[in-house]
Amino acid sequence: MPSQDGMQAQPLNLRQQLLTWGKLLRAVGVAGWVLLSWLGLSLPGWGISLGDPLPEWAKPISVGRQQVRVVEYSQGRDQIRAYGNEAGRVFWIQISSQADLPPDYRDYLGEYQQFPPQVVEVVPLRARTLRFRQGERSAEWRVMGMSGQFQAEAISQDLAPNGLK
Amino acid sequence: MFILLGKLAKPCDGLPWGSLWTKVWSCLWGILALLLMWLGGGCSGQGESTAPPSALIPSPPQLGTESIPMPVRTLGNSRFKLLGLNVGVAGGTAELLLDTGSAGLRILSSAVGPFGLERTTTPSTVTFGDGTQFIGVLARAPFSLGGIQSREPVTLQLIDQVTCVDALVSGCSETLFGQGKPFAGILGTALDERSTDREVFSPLTRLPGNFRSGYILQTGGFNSTQGIFTIGLTAVNTAGFNFRQFPQVGIFPDGTPIWRDEALQAAYTISNTSIQNVLSPTNFDSGSSDIFLNVRLLGAAPFSTATLPPGAEWRAVLEGAFDYRIRVGFPVTPGRDRIFVNGLLNKQLLGMPLFFSADVAFDIERGRVGFRLR
Predict the structure, then answer these.
(1) Considering chain A, what is the average pLDDT of its residues?
(2) Whose CB among A30, B35, B255, B265 lies 3.0–4.6 Å from B279's, allowing a Cys bridge?
(3) In the 8-state DSSP scheme, what is residue B307?
(4) Which of the four pLDDT bands, split at 50, 70 and 90, describes residue B16?
(5) Cα–Cα distance between A130 and B13 in angstroms, integer?
(6) What mean pLDDT comes out for the span B309-323?
(7) Which neighbouring-strand residues pair with B270?
(8) The pTM is what?
(9) What ipTM does this complex have?
(10) Do the Cβ atoms of B130 and A146 come within 8 Å?
(11) Burial B252-265 (b: 16+ CB within 10 A, else e)
């Protein structure tokens, strides 16, 4: 009987060990997810503005006949796409937003937001274009859509490649 | 006029025979003056801004349909054009902007009557692309159009404040909405789901019987000051329309079908560009004073100009429905030939220029849109 007890006790220990390992693996998994989530949540802090250097991992694409490099990322309820010129600086940012409020130009215009603004065009309810200009340098900010489905873009006239000005 | 005629004719009553001829002459002169006044009044009426143009003839009255005046408003420094429609909400009446591109009734709280109004505390805010923002709460109220009462109260946005989201840079459309301003809100009649408040959708779906089957917009053309809005579709009033079907993509909380009204693909051509007969999803939007193309969706790089220049030729073909062309004039005229090219949306917007060129029927019940080019 004792031997039988012993025989019965060994599989229990193995099961306990497996359970312990399982718990450990689960804890490591949870920690990994927490770390990944933290990194994911911290990404929005990495905003991109006109004039910023484009990250190394930007992909080459063609816009019309022009070759440019682009990065895409999400930030909250916004999908953002930033294009870089031949010097690797961001000249064009497109934002697709499902938020209730339109994207804020201050998050994307970089130093251009300090330039004097003017209203270029207002199409009632549907669209607005602002221009920020100082001397030879200028950027435009355009918004269309409505709550839940905004589209916006910031474009620098002085950083844009010749074919896209 | 008939009351006035009766009052002026009274001096002819009970006259003594002695002065008969004098009185007869004075009566005849009076009648002549009245006739001249009546004719004069008739002629001046043609010049009034509310008279529908002679080309617009409403369909004969039919059971389950109602035709009502639809003012065409010319607004702002650039003289853009938008449509108005008088509606009744909780016993009050007001002119709202008629917008086939948005969904739901949004009305200033000051324009709403007290009868049957249930104001909630649920906040409701909507912001438009030009920065115009309506801040208010959700409410329920009886709605009427052309004297036709809704079957039940409709959920709406009660606007307490109209503002611009960005105070730093002025220039939104807050001047269009308010007391003493052109509109007291927006009547969004889109067949699609286009509101962050899911229960706010086209109130026309709440009308009784055949009145909720659909509606027709007839502007009368670019120079018209008043068109006709018809609720209720019949075989008679849709004769001559070419219809295309929208896909159904769901149902609203009350079971009303949601039709994807931006799913139809029109083929676009712009002269002297790479854009030749390129298909793209299109929305038929009376709330857009102009045409908005997104040329990137048509495979082109952004244009260097904001709008197509004078002399440019543009064409949109919706197979089986319309072949619509514009040659841009000089100067470019908002509402007629102003075509913005660097739009940002994932669709093309055919705005007021299309509505000036065609009568447009929206079939709520069967999820279709029909066009009858003028």
Answers:
(1) 82
(2) B265
(3) B
(4) very low
(5) 72
(6) 97
(7) B314
(8) 0.81
(9) 0.81
(10) no
(11) beeebbbbbbbbbb
- Give dist(CA B221, CA B163) in Å, integer: 32
Mutate to test the interface with A, among B134, B169, B297, B352 (most CBs of A within 10 A): B169
Using the structure block, give the residue that is written with the tokens 């060129």: B357
Torsion of CA B102, A103, B303, A158, to 10 degrees: 160
Of A125, A152, A164, nearest to B128 by CB-CB distance is A125
Each residue's pLDDT tens digit in chain A (165 positions)? 333 343 444 455 666 776 677 676 676 666 655 554 444 444 445 689 999 999 988 999 887 777 899 999 999 999 999 999 999 999 999 999 999 999 999 999 999 999 999 989 999 999 999 999 999 999 999 999 999 999 999 999 999 998 777
Q: How far apart are CA B193 and CA B251, in angstroms?
A: 9
Residues of A in contact with B186 (CB under 8 A): 125
Structure token digits, residue B30: 């009076």
Length of chain A: 165
On chain A, the residues whose CB falls within 8 A of the CB of B289 are 123-124, 126
Across B71-83, b (16+ Cβ under 10 Å) vs e yields bbbebbebebbbb
Query: How near does any CA of chain A get to the CA of B69, in Å?
Result: 23
Asked if B344 lies within 8 A of A151 by C-beta distance, the reply is: yes
Question: Helix (H, G, I), strand (E, B), or coil: what is residue B30?
Answer: helix
